[in-house]
Amino acid sequence: MAQYYTFKVVTQSCLEEFNNSYFFGEYILIGDFSKFVKNDELIVSKELVDILKDKVEDTYENAEGDTVSVKLLELINHEEVVDKVTSEGLNVLMQQFYYFEDPISSEEFLKRYHIDK
Description:
This protein is of the alpha+beta class. It is built from two helices and seven strands. The strands form two sheets. Strands 5-6-1-2-7 form a five-stranded antiparallel sheet. Strands 3-4 form a two-stranded antiparallel ribbon. The mean pLDDT is 88.
C-alpha cells in the first residue's frame, strides 16, 4: 500500500552576480514515500533529502538576464497523508516566496521563519 507524505521545505535563492543577494521560498510537496517507511515510521535519509532537492533545486536565468541558483535550505517538517491520494511522482502543492527590502542572511531568515515555534 502506498504511503503518502507532505514535506515542507524552505529554499534559498541567490543571484550569482551578487553573492549576498538572497530571497527565500517555501514549498509543500507530496509524494509516495513507501520505500522510506520502516515499522510505520518515515526514515528521513540522505536519499530522501536528495529526492526533495531534485524537485526544488534549480539554476536558471531570470527576466533581467541574471543567473539564479536555488538551493534547499532546510526540511521543516513532514506529515503522513491519511486521506486517499492518487498522485504519481513528487508534486508541488504550494509555493510561496519571501522577499525583504534589505538583504538578510539564511540564519536570520530561519530565525524569522520559525518565529511561531
